[in-house]
Amino acid sequence: MKIHKYDTVIVGAGGAGMRAAIEATKRSRTAVLTKLYPTRSHTGAAQGGMAAALANVEEDNWEWHTFDTVKGGDYLVDQDAAEILAKEAIDAVLDLEKMGLPFNRTPDGTIDQRRFGGHSRNHGEAPVRRSCYAADRTGHMILQTLYQNCVKEGVEFFNEFYVLDQLITEVDGVKTSAGVVAYELATGEIHVFQAKSVIYASGGTGKFFKVTSNAHTLTGDGQAACYRRGLPLEDMEFFQFHPTGIWRMGILLTEGARGEGGILRNKDGERFMEKYAPVMKDLASRDVVSRSIYTEIREGRGCGPEGDHVYLDLTHLPPEQLDAKLPDITEFARTYLGIEPYTDPIPIQPTAHYAMGGIPTNVEGEVLADNTTVVPGLYAAGEVACVSVHGANRLGTNSLLDINVFGKRSGIAAAEYAAKHDYVELPENPAELVETQVKNLLSSTGTERVAVIRKELQETMDANVMVFRTEQTIKTAVEKIAELRERYKNVSVQDKGKRFNTDLLEAIELGNLLDLAEVMAVSALARKESRGGHYREDYPNRDDVNFMRHTMAYREVADGGKDSIRLDYKPVVQTRYQPMERKY
Amino acid sequence: MATPTLEKAEAGFADSPYITVTFRIRRFNPEISDEATWQDFQVEIDPKERVLDGLHKIKWELDGSLTFRRSCAHGICGSDAMRINGKNRLACKTLIKDLNPEKPITVEAIKGLTVLKDLVVDMDPFFQAYRDVMPFLVTKGNEPTRERLQSAEDRERFDDTTKCILCAACTSSCPVFWNDGQYFGPAAIVNAHRFIFDSRDEAGEQRLEILNDKDGVWRCRTTFNCTDACPRGIEVTKAIQEVKRALITRRF
For site-directed labelling of B180, which of A71, A126, A281, B105 has its Cα 20 to 30 A away? Predict the structure, then answer.
């Protein structure tokens, strides 16, 4: 075991982590621990753009953006946070441009903007051009630009280091962050990083679904590390299903395709979104569009021999426009489906895309130990966190914004905290939990296989807690997950070595997915209403009287060592917008 | 009623039956042996699936010790460049049906970088060459309040080289790089090009001097391996030629 000491440790090197690192490195001795090489993060898969009311191409302002974000989140958004997001969006985009990001340009040479789902002029009057973009590879450009600037700033990276445990020491009765424990993939060595402040920026957890746009590596490691140490997870029942994933594969086809004029059609060629969202049509918010697609499928208007998908039609758009604005997604259709989008519609289905919930933070990125108490020295930003700016449903282009605004904020806040505070003493045997976990998995002779359990988990999640949920389906999932968690104790790995043991890491990642899937299902079961991405067929309406509140899930461990989930609730911050019925 | 799911997704596409494919993989694990060996695996797979799906089937069902990097699985993250049937490609962008699955599909680590285990190579020299070309925007003077202006034409000038995902498929396909790891390699030059031809940047001269080095662009023998290998379709050799021309004319 090796011990390292840094002022600030950042976990994850995607958009949020690197944006934080650029700030933290200027202000404190900073290490970035990342399980992938920095440019491998899934920020790079984001396509359509980053919202900011620059008003470069038409009238717009940050207040409209705030409203759209609150409404898009079905009023579960904390409005103080949404206001910060929308206000700071403008500088966040300009910062990136100054760092070198090659945005598409208007004829005047300013940053070009395009339409995106749920973003409107004057509180829902009509779609507005608010998304700043670089073709359909905006996430790629953000990731590359941030990495380039990390190189410029001399950010210190520990590549292929998996953070598996969060260290917490009680100081005067207050849970305080002491550092993290990481596993080095190349050598199998365990490292303890003592740090004055720690920022989690480790991304989402979509890999507990089967049809997902998420990378194989999005396994909720940061959420799980905090949750296991008794910290809460907020709003985990809210997961976004992006309307346009490639049929059966789940690969993302950007909403920007509809922003450029693409149309969703059923087997009769009907533009069905006109029925469900008369004003915004194909650009209604993602939860609305995904439910509409599945309604079409369930009512027998799906396409193909099995009637199990619909079409994204781009054939009426000029090929030059597709080449200039949507080059990557048209290539995906050619590569993976053998389809020419100039002439043929693309089969799509909703794909598990984004966790609105995560580690609760305030607007400075400080992690909460309960509804009000912060964990000194602990921060989170990006998809791993829940500020909450996305509420019950995130608007497209608000996640690339989130990582930049709250990545920057948490990077500054963490470094400033580190400048003012001393190291907290490490717990006794700080690496014990990880050492035991690794040793047990390597020595296990159990008969369960990681791939089998993971597949069963993904199947039950797709079948039971996806776009449509009922008490019965969620209960089925809860029972199945409990069974799988039990079987997981009997899992073994074939690779017993120390060198690049990805077999071992996949087993650990599966443990994280199982814990988080359980939190998600249990949180969903208790929310007896429909709101944003959480749709209960047995409770089809939003219930502001009983459920205008955030879910806070805690892990409790009984004396015998058996763990369970305790649910609590946190009020939603409402400032200027009163809840209204949500229509598009 | 639950969300309709795709029962037959397991069988891939309904109209395409599984076939048996042999994967012939170059295995190396210094914890076990100093020698690399070829190992064959038989896999039932839909021809429309990716080579990466085949590798996953092997790892998940046959041999958990098979080691490779991967993440996004659709050609964006750049983790899974490997040598498939003798050609550098991303395993997640290569479909079985495009490889003549009648014959064994050979899979080995990319060349020119030290193999650490199976298909995993040491990427550090590759990233070091990238860092050496100053891959970031350099500007002088006061920053504007708003964005810097750039015409659509100026933006288009370096569009091709912004697509790079740093997968190393190009660099590790280059015979000059195989013979001499000191050569910057195509990927680093591509990323220098991305800034040299960006109208906002003011460090083009410095980058050109770096690439004028004995290990710089002049080592390129224009074999076009890099262009063939690039999974993003970047015209890598052309970009290198443009850098060479800029060195001669000092116009960019």
Answer: B105
